[in-house]
Amino acid sequence: MQYVNIFDSHAHYDDAAFDEDREQLLAALPGAGVRLVVNCGADLASSRKAAALAREYPYFYAAAGIHPEEAHDLPEDWEDELKALLSQPREVAVGEIGLDYHFDENPPREAQRDVFQKQIILANSLGLPVIIHDRDAHGDTMELLQKHRPRGVVHCFSGSVEMAKEVLRLGMYIGLGGAVTFKNARVPVEVAKMVPPDRLLLETDCPYMAPVPFRGKRNDSSLIAYTAARIAEIRGEDAQELIDCAFRNASRLFLGNENATGD
Domain of 251? Predict the structure, then answer.
């Protein structure tokens, strides 16, 4: 399954799952049809690693942010550190940020909301989009998005069609990945059907969320081909045309390129 012009809008190549063969894998991605990647931070350390990868690989861009699971034990000057990271070349978004109420051991909800809100405000002040993580926190996530109205994407979208419509009304994008290929993917399939073509982003969240038939294995950007093929099937569209459209969307959001081509 070979396509071109893949723009992976959400990856974590700084993850330890890539430590053994990172250089070889990343060198091979362009030959697998991968044209651009946004590598997202989850804390200050991983955001620094994302910035380093963006300096090393010309088809990489970086995002810097504090993931909700990391919204604790932050240094007093974490906002200044994050702002300094975001001022570096090839930094295109504040992310991955958001709310995660799934596990009881996650940071207290109030702390998560505080860190999330501060990062949205920072993104707006810098004119950068946000990359939103929302797990079992749909109501509070939407409340803060409606309050501050950032540009950006709700990645690995797990909400309802009704929530997707609210996200779209805010002018934001919907990010879909491997979950849409899973057997039990009823709601992601419904969302994939209704997202307007100019608001859809493709992503991996690698090394996680590998699509069928690789579910449970390490994910990488080349496997977006399987996600795109499934979404195209759901929508009755051509997979390469869908990939090209998602490329233009991600270029518009992250690079400010209104005239990007998927050619």
Answer: 6-255
- Taking all residues of the chain, what is their mean pLDDT, rounded to a whole number? 96
Instruction: Give the pTM.
Output: 0.96
The confidence band for 257, taking pLDDT boundaries of 50, 70 and 90, is confident
DSSP assignment string, the chain:
---S-EEEEEE-TTSGGGTTTHHHHHHHTGGGTEEEEEEEPSSHHHHHHHHHHHHH-TTEEEEE---GGG-SS--TTHHHHHHHHHTSTTEEEEEEEEEE-SSTTSPPHHHHHHHHHHHHHHHHHHT--EEEEEES-HHHHHHHHHHH---EEE-S--S-HHHHHHHHHTT-EEEE-GGGGSTT-HHHHHHHHHS-GGGEEE---BTS-PPTTSTTS---GGGHHHHHHHHHHHHT--HHHHHHHHHHHHHHHHH--TT----
Whether the CB-CB separation of 95 and 123 falls below 8 Å is answered with: no
Task: Give the integer Cα–Cα distance in Å for 110 and 46.
Answer: 24
Q: Label residue 3 by pLDDT band (50, 70, 90).
A: very high
Residue 76 CA: distances (Å) to CA of 43, 52, 69, 198: 14, 24, 18, 40
Number of domains in the chain: 1
Residue 262 resides in a domain: no
Question: Is residue 261 assigned to a domain?
Answer: no
Indicate if the pLDDT at residue 259 is higher than 80.
no
In a domain, 186, yes or no: yes
> What CATH number is given to the structural domain containing 156?
3.20.20.140
pLDDT > 70 in the chain, percent: 98
Residue labelled with tokens 């009304």 = 169
